[in-house]
Amino acid sequence: MNKKHDVSDFQDTSVFVLAFSMAAFTVLVLIKTLVAVFETSVIDQFRSIYYLTDYSSSTVSLVSGIFGAIVTLLLGTATFGLFFVIFSASRENLSKVIAGMNLIKFSAVFGLIVSIITVVCSVASVSVVNYYAVRAAAFQQTVRNDSWRMLVSALVFGAVSIIFEIAVIRFLMAIENYLSSKELRRKGAGLIGFVSGIGAVTAAIAFISLLYDIVTVNYKSENFSPSSLASDILNLLISVSLIVFFISLMMSVYNYSKVFMDDEDEYFYDYFDDTQWDEEKEVRVFSENESHIIEDYSKPKQFVLTFDIPHTEYPE
After folding, report:
1. Do residues 253 and 189 make contact, with C-beta atoms less than 8 angstroms apart?
2. pLDDT, average across residues 215-224
3. pLDDT tens for each residue of 98-125
4. Can you tell me the distance from the alpha carbon of 182 to that of 176, in angstroms, rounded to the nearest whole number?
5. Per-residue pLDDT averaged across 141-149, rounded?
6. Which of 54, 167, 201, 292 has the greatest number of beta carbons closer than 10 A?
């Protein structure tokens, strides 16, 4: 197994596209966070936290800023680790490639924790939305209640996010074991490809929906503002970066899985060749000149050994 050749596969075009799309996504999330902080935008998934902290504008900005900063930090760490892997692979430095992958794995582990916390907050926010809808109905006010839609989206996207991060962690561990010459594994590769396909389709649907809203100015009159338009444009760009990210991730995982399969075949054939008998050292049990056929059955049978007794020691 040629590890240097396998490390050079990290310089594939799909890996470069993956790194730059991830960098663009990180920058856009940072800008989105700044807009949410200065515009005090309410995030539906954190309404439970707003409710526990008196729902003030300063609390909304603080919660949005903390959450956005954590997500941006994790994405930035993963992006830096991916570029570090590409740079180290160009110099065929195996130890630094593994170090860069550990950075990505670190961000994926903490991202998994953030995803779980987000799902819990989203589920808790459903009761807050229902509470304010009931209060508004008591005062004969009409309030749009999207609690069930938020619950379903939180559970579905939360589950997909958690499964995706677990698959990434498993796949990175498999690659690390492979590069460390421990064992051949492809754990998580198929699951990453499946979830990435779902993510690409979902991001494409979101892109079409947002584009339609922007082109047709599909806003309620009281909600239309420069900040809402800027937020939707950012969401549009984020969806584009996610489409490119998921597609390039599928290609990268597929290309590197081929390396696993090639090395598995190479390992099998090397083992098969090593276990073949050498014809020069093959032991012949039966005599070469003996036909083992009795031509005349009328003669009495002779109890003669029909094979040569092999020696217990063989010459080189």
Report:
1. yes
2. 60
3. 899 999 999 999 999 999 999 999 888 8
4. 9
5. 69
6. 167
At residue 20, the pLDDT reads 94
Cβ atoms of residues 110 and 169 within 8 Å: no
Measured torsion, CA atoms of residues 156, 159, 165, 169, in degrees rounded to the nearest 10: -150
Task: Write down the pTM of the prediction.
Answer: 0.75
User: pLDDT tens across 15-68, in order?
Assistant: 899 999 999 999 999 998 888 888 777 787 888 888 888 777 788 888 888 999
Task: Classify residue 185 as left (phi > 0), alpha (psi -120 to 50) or beta.
Answer: beta
What pLDDT is recorded for position 229?
75
Q: Considering only CA atoms, which of 41, 40, 35, 47 is closest in space to residue 146?
A: 47
Residue 210 phi, psi (nearest 5): -65, -40
Buried b (16+ CB within 10 A) or exposed e, 168-183: bbbbbebbbebbeeee
